[in-house]
């Protein structure tokens, strides 16, 4: 977002090669988040279906290794965007990120950016829905007490909502090409991308009572301070 805003305000200050690197960094960070989210989905699947093996498969050391692997895979497979004709760069003229118009860029735009990402989102969502249903079926199990189910359900809801927003964001990128207005394209691409990134923390606050409590406490402190000041 900083890169986009700086180019809109100050014009072309990056070399084409640097723009390519910036696009690579943006996509690598995005896929690092996506693959980490997939690891969390697998974590929940194991916790629901194989609780006796959970502590072994997802101990502290193994979990760290899984996260490192997710990040490495993301940074390695996105290295293709550093090749000529395969770049993903922000274009100040159209106010949006664009894949290269060459064959490699068009292929990545269709198969990686759209089809591959939609498949990931759909599969992750279906697995989380399955886990949520299994969680409800196992009410009699000690490992899934009432209190634990109350803590787990918001996380499943967040994952499902995140997948819906993610697919919507991907779709908006491809819908943007049908509009000629620069402002509309900016909203459907850069703005939509940033809103999706912001939606994660907001969904956590909205769906999880535990995370709303600090904000309520802050509001209570603020109200108390105002009343005290008035007196």
TrEMBL record:
PANTHER family: G-PROTEIN COUPLED RECEPTORS FAMILY 1 PROFILE DOMAIN-CONTAINING PROTEIN, SERPENTINE RECEPTOR, CLASS X. InterPro entries: 7TM_GPCR_serpentine_rcpt_Srx (IPR019430), GPCR_Rhodpsn_7TM (IPR017452). The keyword Transmembrane helix applies. SUPFAM superfamilies: Family A G protein-coupled receptor-like. Gene3D superfamilies: Rhodopsin 7-helix transmembrane proteins. Residues 1-231 form the G-protein coupled receptors family 1 profile domain. This is G-protein coupled receptors family 1 profile domain-containing protein. The lineage of its organism: Eukaryota, Metazoa, Ecdysozoa, Nematoda, Chromadorea. Keywords: Membrane, Transmembrane, Transmembrane helix.
């Amino acid at each position: 977002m900083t890169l986009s805003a700086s180019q809109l305000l100050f014009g072309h200050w990056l070399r084409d090669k640097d723009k390519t690197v910036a696009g690579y960094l943006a996509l690598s960070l995005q896929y690092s988040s996506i693959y980490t989210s997939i690891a969390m989905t697998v974590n929940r699947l194991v916790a629901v279906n194989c609780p006796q093996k959970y502590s072994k498969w997802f101990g502290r050391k193994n979990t760290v290794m899984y996260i490192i692997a997710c990040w490495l895979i993301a940074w390695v497979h996105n290295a293709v965007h550093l090749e000529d004709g395969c770049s993903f760069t922000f274009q100040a003229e159209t106010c949006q990120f664009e894949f290269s118009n060459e064959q490699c860029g068009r292929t990545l735009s269709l198969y990686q950016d759209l089809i591959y990402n939609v498949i990931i989102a759909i599969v992750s969502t279906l697995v989380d829905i399955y886990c949520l249903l299994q969680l409800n079926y196992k009410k009699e199990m000690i490992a899934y007490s009432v209190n634990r189910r109350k803590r787990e359900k918001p996380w499943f809801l967040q994952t499902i909502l995140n997948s819906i927003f993610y697919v919507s964001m991907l779709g908006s990128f491809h819908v943007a090409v049908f509009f000629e207005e620069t402002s509309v394209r900016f909203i459907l691409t850069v703005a939509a991308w940033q809103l999706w990134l912001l939606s994660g923390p907001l969904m956590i606050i909205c769906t999880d009572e535990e995370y709303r409590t600090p904000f309520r406490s802050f509001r209570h402190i603020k109200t108390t301070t105002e009343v005290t000041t008035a007196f």
